Amino acid sequence: IMEFPRYATFAQSFANTIPFSEGIGFIAKIDDPEKDIDYVYYVTAHEVAHQWWGHQVMEAGVKGNAMLSESMSQYSALMVLKQKFTPEILERYLKYELDRYLGGRAFERKKEQPLEFVEGQGYIHYQKASLIFFALQDYIGEDSVNAAFRRYNETWKFKDAPYPTSADLLKEIKKVTPDSLQSIIHDMFETITLFENKTTEATYVEKAKDQFEVTLKVSAEKMRADSTGLESSIAINDWIDIGVYGKNKAGKDSLLYLK
Fold it and tell me: What domains can be seen in the chain, in order of their start residue?
């Protein structure tokens, strides 16, 4: 990893080196690891991941190619963060990515594309991809996603043209996805699908010491958008996580239950 002056603020992975601007790494101030997102750690993991996604495996220069380099590196970095940080910190980071994705699509001047066909739209192949791949490993398991990535790498690494496309990665992902969950591949990668989920009411009853019965009223809506942003409600038949938070001894939000 090589530091360079902050006349530019980026990091980039090359064959054996990663130029890293002092402006996004070496002068970063992260005082509270439980509060501040350690973006330096994340960016480093992302760039190291490019040694596999983008270097060992070159992608074809077609629609969706950024999914095979940037999106896969986003996922790899997230799994590194998952090993180091708490679920609360991961949630904070994913919320940040969600806000940036929604903001990006709101200012799209041409056409939003599904992740499978992304065309140089960072808010899709970075931010949306983080959310999609993290959700994917939540649905089918991290080991299954890793198995798909491994087979994709073994099939295509160090090969000349013809290079793989996003369809080749999706083929491997579909192999490790149960029949009952194949619809999420369509929702996540092949279409623009959004959810509007919220809790409208929450009550609890103490049943015993440190045991509570929590009752929630929730609202969930599923929408399909076209390339111009026009959204239409569609039938919802999806597994959706329900979580309960409370305050820990330090007075900070702490995840108590997630299913």
Answer: 2-190 (1.10.390.10), 192-259 (no CATH)
Closest to 183 in 3D by CA, of 219, 225, 222: 222
Other C-beta atoms lying within 10 Å of the C-beta of residue 156: 18
Residue-level pLDDT, tens digit, the chain, 259 residues: 999 999 999 999 998 899 999 988 888 888 776 777 888 999 999 999 999 999 999 999 999 999 999 999 999 999 999 999 888 889 989 999 999 999 999 999 999 999 999 999 999 999 999 999 999 999 999 999 999 999 999 999 999 999 999 999 999 999 999 999 999 999 999 999 999 999 999 999 999 888 899 999 999 999 999 999 999 999 999 999 998 988 888 788 888 888 8
Residues contacting 240, CB < 8 A, separation 6+: 195, 197, 220
Number of alpha carbons in the 13 Å side-chain half-sphere of residue 180: 5
Contacts 24+ apart (CB under 8 A), 53-57: 54/13, 55/13, 55/15, 56/153, 56/157, 56/158, 57/152, 57/153, 57/156, 57/157, 57/159, 57/164
Report DSSP letters for 18-84, one per residue: -EEEGGGTTT-----TTTS--HHHHHHHHHHHTTTBTTTBPPPSSTTGGGGTHHHHHHHHHHHHHHH
Q: At what angle do helices 142-156 and 166-175 cross, to 10 degrees?
A: 130
- On whether the pTM is more than 0.90, the answer is yes
Rounded Cα distance between 206 and 209, Å, is 8
Residue 52 one-letter amino acid: W
